[in-house]
């Protein structure tokens, strides 16, 4: 083995070790003299005097926090002012004083402050032991053996299991394996209207579509989701069901890495100024369309396209009520970072890590040589309106579902939702994503270039073999 091969092997080993190690080994360390807390239960809350000493306990809707600095070990009266985030997806926390006289304006209302969290600190913590588990599986016979094994495992742990009504026929177990009364008592049919607030943990058996279905069920706050890969692709489902018993032990005990997958809030607004867009019932009473004002939470993308029409889509794009551009083409994709590796990637958009707070705007086959996909900050409000001079209608779909027709002057308002999908990670928030890129999408797959020494050796070998070649 030459020197280059040895270096390559050592780099591969270090990468594998880094992937398999816990995030805690990186996030809870002393870096450049700064001391991190032990439990990571605090979060930046406000901007005070232009410094970075902004640590205050807070419980936000995400339920995930960043590492805290241990102020108890500092001398009395001394405050740690400048600090740098350790290993993170984001840049270091910026110093908030600019030159001798400039600083950031103090924010009086903390609700207006957007905090960028350190992904390495996003760990699952149960406030109390979980009791109610929802199983969502891919339809068909292919996932039935895993479904039965999972139900049996959860019942033996004295957990209450909720299942879909179509899966009730698969609950017949041998009496020597488990008591029939326990199955009847602990296994219940899931009623989305009444039981959704009870679910402590959701387990998906299937592919990426199963996770998208779980997102459509939880249209507000969502419990942690554990996804086993039993589908065709599995980009969003990192776990192998073969090790489900060990994985359940770790998840139910807590302290596993969480990846907060951002969702989009999509609100449909119908143009009511045109009387042709209102319907009348039998009594002559006019009512607006039922889909007017309807809100969807979207995990992958919102797509507005031309549907079955043969003409170009003609859409107006606004950001924060400011007109940006007119979209003329097959349509427009507004995707989350999670969705950037789905339809957006196929349409030519950049792939964005799920922890990056952003939205991706990608045209579909634009009739323009200069319309490139762009990435905008999360939190902006986008509006896509069907142009008044469009020839035909447009069509809306969210995560490939809920196909709706949009007429002239109808619009869709899209912004970042405060309800993410807390997806349980296999290794950590970075390792899972890059492993999926390499193993599933074959990202940057190429035969490695050989070194100069190897090339020279091959040339010498070729020359020697030619010397002994028979002369015809």
Automatic annotation (TrEMBL):
<dbReference type="InterPro" id="IPR017438">
    <property type="entry name" value="ATP-NAD_kinase_N"/>
</dbReference>
<protein>
    <recommendedName>
        <fullName>NAD(+) kinase</fullName>
        <ecNumber>2.7.1.23</ecNumber>
    </recommendedName>
</protein>
<keyword id="KW-0521">NADP</keyword>
<comment type="similarity">
    <text>Belongs to the NAD kinase family.</text>
</comment>
<keyword id="KW-0418">Kinase</keyword>
<keyword id="KW-0520">NAD</keyword>
<dbReference type="Pfam" id="PF01513">
    <property type="entry name" value="NAD_kinase"/>
</dbReference>
<dbReference type="Pfam" id="PF20143">
    <property type="entry name" value="NAD_kinase_C"/>
</dbReference>
<keyword id="KW-0547">Nucleotide-binding</keyword>
<dbReference type="GO" id="GO:0005524">
    <property type="term" value="F:ATP binding"/>
</dbReference>
<dbReference type="GO" id="GO:0003951">
    <property type="term" value="F:NAD+ kinase activity"/>
</dbReference>
<dbReference type="InterPro" id="IPR017437">
    <property type="entry name" value="ATP-NAD_kinase_PpnK-typ_C"/>
</dbReference>
<dbReference type="GO" id="GO:0019674">
    <property type="term" value="P:NAD+ metabolic process"/>
</dbReference>
<keyword id="KW-0067">ATP-binding</keyword>
<dbReference type="InterPro" id="IPR016064">
    <property type="entry name" value="NAD/diacylglycerol_kinase_sf"/>
</dbReference>
<dbReference type="InterPro" id="IPR002504">
    <property type="entry name" value="NADK"/>
</dbReference>
<keyword id="KW-0808">Transferase</keyword>
<dbReference type="GO" id="GO:0006741">
    <property type="term" value="P:NADP+ biosynthetic process"/>
</dbReference>
């Amino acid at each position: 083995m030459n020197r280059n091969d040895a270096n390559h092997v050592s780099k591969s080993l270090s990468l594998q070790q880094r992937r398999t190690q816990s995030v805690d080994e990186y996030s809870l360390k002393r870096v450049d003299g700064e001391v991190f807390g032990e439990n990571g239960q605090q979060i930046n809350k406000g901007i005070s005097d232009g410094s970075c000493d902004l640590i205050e306990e807070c419980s936000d809707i995400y339920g995930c926090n960043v590492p805290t600095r241990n102020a108890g070990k500092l001398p009395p009266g001394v405050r740690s002012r400048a600090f740098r985030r350790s290993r993170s997806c984001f840049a270091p926390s910026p110093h908030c004083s600019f030159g001798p006289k400039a600083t950031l304006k103090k924010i009086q209302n903390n609700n207006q402050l957007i905090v960028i969290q350190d992904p390495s600190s996003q760990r699952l913590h149960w406030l109390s032991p979980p009791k109610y588990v929802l199983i969502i599986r891919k339809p068909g016979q292919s996932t039935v053996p895993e479904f039965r094994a999972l139900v049996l495992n959860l019942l033996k742990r004295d957990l209450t299991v909720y299942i879909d009504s179509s899966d009730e026929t698969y609950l017949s177990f041998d009496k020597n394996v488990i008591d029939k009364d326990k199955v009847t008592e602990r296994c219940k049919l899931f009623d989305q209207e009444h039981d959704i607030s009870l679910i402590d943990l959701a387990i998906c058996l299937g592919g990426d579509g199963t996770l998208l279905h779980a997102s459509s069920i939880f249209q507000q706050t969502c419990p942690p989701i554990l996804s086993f890969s039993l589908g065709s692709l599995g980009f969003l489902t990192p776990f192998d069901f073969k090790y489900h018993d060990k994985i359940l032990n770790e998840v139910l005990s807590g302290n596993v890495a969480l990846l907060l997958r951002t969702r989009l809030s999509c609100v449909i607004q119908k143009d009511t100024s045109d009387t042709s867009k209102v319907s009348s019932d039998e009594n002559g009473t006019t009512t607006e369309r039922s889909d007017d004002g309807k809100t969807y939470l979207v995990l992958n993308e919102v797509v507005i396209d031309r549907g079955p029409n043969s003409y170009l889509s003609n859409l107006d794009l606004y950001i924060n009520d400011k007109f940006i551009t007119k979209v003329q083409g097959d349509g427009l994709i507004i995707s989350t970072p999670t969705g950037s590796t789905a339809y957006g990637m196929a349409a030519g958009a950049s792939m964005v890590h799920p922890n990056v707070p952003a939205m991706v705007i990608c045209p579909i086959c634009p009739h323009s040589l200069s319309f490139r996909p762009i990435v905008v900050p999360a939190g902006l409000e986008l509006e896509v309106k069907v142009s008044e001079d469009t020839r035909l209608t447009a069509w809306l779909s969210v995560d490939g579902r809920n196909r709706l027709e949009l007429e002239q002057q109808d619009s869709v308002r899209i912004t970042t939702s405060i309800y993410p999908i807390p997806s349980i990670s296999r290794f950590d928030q970075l390792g899972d994503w890059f492993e999926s890129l390499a193993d599933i999408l074959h990202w940057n797959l190429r035969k490695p270039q050989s070194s100069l020494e190897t090339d020279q050796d091959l040339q010498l070998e070729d020359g020697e073999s030619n010397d002994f070649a028979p002369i015809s």
